[in-house]
Amino acid sequence: QVQVVESGGGSVQSGGSLRLACTVSGLAFRKYAMGWYRQAPGKEREGVSCVSWNGGRAVYVDSVKGRFTISRDNSEGTLYLQMNSLKPEDTAMYYCAAGASPYYNGDDPCFDLRYWGQGTQVTVSS
């Protein structure tokens, strides 16, 4: 059974930084696209960033471009989200998602993200 575990959340002041990490067991991490999503109370889950299986393609929602960076270390089996210049509107539960299509070569690195973690809370105060 696939297990997805996020870590690194916390409370920071506006303008601060956090780095989230995600580890996956039960599948070969290096074969699959990965993504970060977030959900604030009363809002729908929103895609933040996704990266292809080999790190060659990455996408970001417009609101985080220039502030967040997604990366992966396939030798360690870890996905990261570096979050800089945090804003109160970034406050949400952040979820990591793992793909189910090995070596997917399409244009969308968010394709078929099927396995989800429990989330890690990010709170940004003003």
Offer a quick outline of the entry.
This protein has about 130 residues and is an all-beta fold. It has strands at about 5, 10-15, 20-25, 35-40, 45-50, 60, 70-75, 80-85, 90-100, 115, 120-125. The model has no long low-confidence stretch (mean pLDDT about 95).
Low-confidence stretches: none
Q: Helix and strand succession?
A: EEEEEEEEEEE
The largest β sheet comes out as: 7 strands, mixed
Radius of gyration from the CA trace? 14 Å
Residue share in β-strands: over 45%
Structural class: mainly beta
What is the overall number of helices?
Answer: 0
Overall number of strands: 11
- Helix content bin: under 10%
Q: Which geometry do the CA atoms define?
A: globular
Average the pLDDT over all residues and give the rounded result.
Answer: 96
Give an overview of the whole structure:
- The protein is globular and about 40 Å long.
- The strands form two sheets. Strands 2, 4, 5, 6, 9, 10 and 11 form a seven-stranded mixed β-sheet that branches.
- It has strands spanning 3-7, 10-13, 18-25, 34-39, 46-51, 58-60, 68-73, 78-83, 92-99, 113-116, 120-125.
- The protein has no helices and eleven strands.
- Helices cover 0% and strands 49% of the residues.
- It starts with a strand and ends with a strand.
- Strand 5 (46-51) and strand 6 (58-60) form a beta hairpin.
- It is mainly β.
- The mean pLDDT is 96.
Descriptive tags:
126 residues, single chain, seven-stranded mixed β-sheet, 49% strand
